[in-house]
Specification:
By secondary structure, this protein is α+β, with helices and mostly antiparallel strands. 59% of the residues lie in helices and 15% in strands. The longest helix has 40 residues, at 154-193. The two termini are 41 Å apart. This is Phosphate transport system permease protein PstA.
């Protein structure tokens, strides 16, 4: 036993066990997030509950959102009549009834002893709306401009409404944006050259074009508001829902297994590709996905050359002096600085100093409205580049240290300069280590939220940093981020219970984005490692 302990084998097994346990915990966490997040898009069955409480009988229609065992003593202290309850605990059902505009809440809680019957709701549809969340009810009628039409025309009405909404969205995002851009340029010219006749005529032409677009949008909204769906909700009341507010309608109790899977895929596709709505508690997260990926790529473009140049100086040119030692200590200490401190630095230096100077030099005609002197995606990328710079420097310097000096000496002996040796021989061989540093930088930067709250991220961005207007890439714009979206939905949402599944779904999506970026970088690193393996040997 003593010999076995001295051999070091127990420590090998202990280390392997710790690594295995860590992997199990990480995989379990990912499975939990994925199950709770992706399961939100699966069409749950809708039940009809007959509830009898305090001599009053009612009907509740909705999805079973959750179950929880509650002590009977706790219910008694809350003033609930628990006479006739068996056992020390009873199940409390949380039922998602939707119909927020009618019932005032999305959820109803019912105790199991109060449930007389629970059966699948026949003919009940789940209606996805632009506002006020989902609506549960039985479609009983359809009208076109107040005239009743067959209910079979509902699918055609929904398709027509989708087409009109797409046209409205295209006009608002392309025509109006282009017109606003022309107005901004014209106003800048008017401020510089005065009210010339030619500019005034151009302004009049733009105003006429704006009036035409406004009239076109008005006609489209009128066309969209003609049809209405009449739905009977669980209290027996008939509610009229405008077709323009209905995005989708499905009957979950009538789905087959294939139908459920197809609906799940469609809902997941909408979540990834649509814009958010209802204070981020409904809709999709495409602007947040785009903002996260674009910011990380921009940060990578900035941090990689800076980190490599710093590492090359420290390892290849700087001698072993006190100044070099202080630089290395400073780099190591920078890695431990809290991220919010970088956010404060980015706000004070990049936004208020650098951005203000850029506005004074290039955008003076737009002042006092700032262009770069306000938080934006460029300053966010620069802030995170500084935050992750120590990781890239240390990783690159370690890669440079692993390259044998004989390779450098051979290159110099063949007549190459030190710069040529670095550029053509040393840096290509150190590229796997550079990619390792970049992978670590991406993994950290993609999940940072605190500094971004100060230097560019917002709850809702009106437009993406890339569009069809010159100069096409707008680095001064604010952007959305998946990490901040999780914080906003989880802690700032007016309807936390309804938005909770979206927190899991967005978290799983953020992990997926980070893993995708890292796998891409790992693939490039492995390719480079195989390419230069023979030279290292």
């Amino acid at each position: 036993m003593t010999r076995w302990l001295r051999s070091g084998a127990p420590w090998v097994w202990l280390t392997a066990g710790a690594v295995s346990l860590s992997l199990i915990v990480v995989l379990g966490l990912l499975l939990l997030i994925g199950w709770k997040g992706l399961g939100y898009f699966w069409p749950a069955p809708v039940y009809q509950f007959e509830v009898q409480q305090n001599g009053h009988q009612s009907i509740v229609i909705g999805e079973v959102y959750g179950r929880k065992a509650v002590p009977v003593e706790q219910l008694t202290e809350a003033g609930i009549d628990t006479s006739g309850f068996d056992g020390e605990k009873v199940l409390r059902y949380v039922i998602k009834t939707g119909n927020r505009d009618v019932l005032g809440s999305d959820f109803v809680t019912v105790l199991e002893p109060h449930i007389v019957s629970q059966v699948p709701a026949a003919g009940v549809a789940v209606i996805e709306r632009l506002k006020n969340g989902r609506f549960y009810g039985i479609p009983v009628g359809l009208t076109d401009d107040g005239v009743a039409i067959p209910l079979e025309e509902l699918e055609h009405s929904l398709d027509q409404a989708d087409s009109v909404r797409d046209l409205i969205r295209q006009i608002e995002k392309k025509d109006l944006v282009a017109l606003n851009h022309q107005f901004e340029q014209l106003n800048a010219q008017l401020r510089n050259s005065g009210d010339s006749l030619e500019l005034m005529e151009e302004r009049q032409r733009l105003e006429q074009r704006f009036a035409q677009i406004e009239q076109q949008l008005l006609l489209l909204h009128q066309q969209l508001g003609r049809d209405s769906l009449i739905v009977k909700e669980m209290t027996g009341q008939e509610i009229t829902l405008p077709i323009e507010q209905i995005l989708d309608i499905w009957y979950p109790n009538d789905f087959t297994a294939a139908g459920k899977f197809g609906h799940w895929l469609r809902q997941l596709g909408h979540f990834v590709s649509d814009d958010p709505r209802e204070a981020n508690t409904e809709g999709g997260v495409f602007p947040a996905i785009f903002g996260t990926v674009f910011m990380v790529l921009l940060m990578s473009v900035i941090v990689t050359p800076l980190g490599v140049l710093a590492a090359v100086y420290l390892h290849e040119y700087a001698g072993k002096s006190v100044f070099t030692k202080l630089l290395r200590v400073a780099v190591i200490n920078l890695a431990g600085v809290p991220s919010i401190v970088y956010g404060v630095f980015g706000l004070g230096f990049f936004v208020y100093i650098v951005g203000a100077q850029i506005d004074d030099l290039f955008f003076a005609e737009q002042l006092p409205a700032p262009t770069f002197g306000t938080p934006g995606i460029l300053w966010s990328a620069l802030t995170l580049a500084i935050l992750t710079l120590p990781v890239v420097i240390v990783s690159t310097e370690e890669g440079l240290a692993r390259i044998p000096n004989s390779i450098r000496h051979g290159s110099l002996a063949l007549g190459a300069t030190q710069a040529e040796t670095l550029w053509r021989t040393v840096l290509p061989m150190a590229s796997p280590a550079i990619m390792t540093g970049l992978i670590l930088a991406v993994a950290r930067a993609a999940g940072e939220v605190a500094p971004l709250m100060l230097v560019g991220v917002v709850k809702m961005a009106p437009s993406l940093p890339i569009d069809g207007q010159f100069p096409y890439l707008h680095l001064d714009r604010k952007f959305m981020h998946l990490g901040y979206h999780i914080y906003d939905v989880g802690f700032q949402s007016p309807n936390v219970e309804a938005a909770r599944p979206l927190v899991y779904a967005t978290s799983f999506l953020l992990v997926t984005v980070i893993v995708g970026l890292n796998l891409t970088a790992i693939g490039i690193r492995n390719h480079l490692r195989e390419k230069f393996r023979s030279l290292e040997q």
